[in-house]
Each structure stands twice: as structure tokens, then as C-alpha cells.
Write a structure and sequence with these properties.
Layout: H1 9-39, H2 44-73, H3 77-100, H4 106-134
């Protein structure tokens, strides 16, 4: 009877922290986009894509975290792998908001740098957990 536990506590904690941080990130980024649209001459055709990227990222975050939690706790590599794939999508959207949104403030750089760091750390822990589950 092999009762060894393979799920990763550091990954579980990081997923939880990321869930909380993402709520803060989303609200802060949304507030800054609204602020920038009031203070700067924000071209109307560029406001929608910046908002769309943020909302798409928010939509991706729910299944990304859910599959991460589920995959880790059930020690199943498929949901964890899907979560890792969604993380790649979130990283691309995060890089857009870091480099290519219409106006990038120092607060945007800070928020996105923290998010990218947690995504990187989380991805490393997911890969490690997947390797443990399949071995």
C-alpha cells in the first residue's frame, strides 16, 4: 500500500496567493486604465483592446487556477498540464499589458513584474509536480 503524497504544498500555497493577488491586479489595472483614459488623450480605438486584454486575462484566470488546484490536489497531470497551458496564455496577455498597452505607468510595470514572477515560479512548480505524478 503506497500512501505517499505527491501533491505540492508550495504549489497549492502559490495558487492561493496568485488567486488573491490576481483580484488586486485586475482591479488596480482596471482603475489605472480608467485613470489613463481620463488623464491622457487615450485614442478611442486603443481603449477597447487594452480593456479586452485585461478582461480576457480575467476570464482565463478562473479555469487556470481551478485546474491548477484540482490537478495538484488529485495528483492528476492532465488538469495541471491544462493549467500550465493557460498560464502560457496569461503570460502573453501580461506581457502585452507590460509592454504594448497604450500607456504604461511605473505601477503597470510593478504589477505586471510581480504577476510574471509568480507565473514563472508557479510554472516551475507545476512542471515539477507533473513530473512527480507521471513517475
Amino acid at each position: 500500500n503506497n500512501s505517499s503524497q505527491l501533491s505540492s504544498l508550495p504549489l497549492q500555497i502559490l495558487l492561493y496567493i496568485n488567486g488573491i493577488y490576481y483580484i488586486f491586479y485586475f482591479l488596480a489595472t482596471l482603475a489605472m486604465i480608467i485613470y489613463k483614459s481620463q488623464v491622457f488623450s487615450y485614442p478611442d480605438d486603443l481603449l477597447a483592446p487594452d480593456l479586452a486584454v485585461l478582461f480576457l486575462m480575467g476570464i482565463l484566470e478562473v479555469p487556470r487556477l481551478y485546474l491548477g488546484f484540482k490537478g495538484n490536489l488529485t495528483e492528476a497531470e492532465a488538469p495541471l498540464g491544462l493549467s500550465l497551458g493557460l498560464t502560457v496564455g496569461s503570460v502573453v496577455l501580461c506581457v502585452y499589458l507590460l509592454l504594448w498597452q497604450t500607456y504604461v505607468l511605473w505601477a503597470d510595470v510593478l504589477l505586471n513584474a510581480v504577476l510574471l514572477s509568480t507565473y514563472g515560479l508557479e510554472s516551475g512548480l507545476k512542471i515539477t509536480a507533473i513530473a512527480a505524478f507521471v513517475s
